[in-house]
Amino acid sequence: MSPLPQLQAVGRIHSPYQEKFSVPRQPGLVTAGEARLQLLPPFDDPLTLEGITQFSHLWLIFVFHECLAQGWQPRVRPPRLGGNQKVGVFATRSPFRPNGLGLSVVRLRGVTQDADGLWLELEGVDLVNGTPVVDIKPYVPFADSLPEADGGFAPAPPTTREVIFTPAAQAQLAQASAQHPQLATFLIQVLGQDPRPAYKQLAEDPKEYGVHLYDYNVRWQVQDGRIQVLALDPWPGSQA
């Protein structure tokens, strides 16, 4: 058998998700919020992107870099089965895989270039900030979209929860919107997915949670089945 090629990152994701806890469980569930892919040398040559804007969506092949040290598991607990039932790793999109590779389809908003390099402007990203991308491929609808396919135990996105803001959070949101105009919509989409473990979603849970999005510690809890945003505190050391 020929040796496998050494993987090399062609780019790195810049996204609002500063930790795994907040990342949507599938691409496309959250469309607000800025996400960009910065191409790395020697792949930051504009010739590598020639013709790419003819496609509305792209496949990103990436590395679950924050999970590599934990190794892989032959059986895992997918969130869509409640987080307690185990199935084979190859029947899931779990990050605990033999080679730690993931696959996401994202919307391409455009290509930009500035003093920092060459960028793909993206929407619908489900990747933590700093994720290495090892390949980019165009999404081709006639081959990649199969409406008749069976979705197994994950046939449709989960229902979303209503998201409300306390008066204190609303005031902080108004200040933050100058830098992030879509922040309110972004928080509603992200928190509406209910980032908590599946088993937590089925019981009373008075716990206050915090999630690192952009440069904020977004504090929230569940009350009467709704997600209530309590505060948007600047993350320690940030310029927010």
UniProtKB/TrEMBL annotation:
Transmembrane segments: none annotated. Keywords: S-adenosyl-L-methionine. Residues 7-148 form the TsaA-like domain. InterPro entries: TrmO-like_N, TrmO_C, UPF0066_cons_site, YaeB-like, YaeB-like_sf, YaeB_N_sf. Signal peptide: none annotated. It holds the Pfam family TrmO_C. Belongs to the tRNA methyltransferase O family. This is tRNA (N6-threonylcarbamoyladenosine(37)-N6)-methyltransferase TrmO.
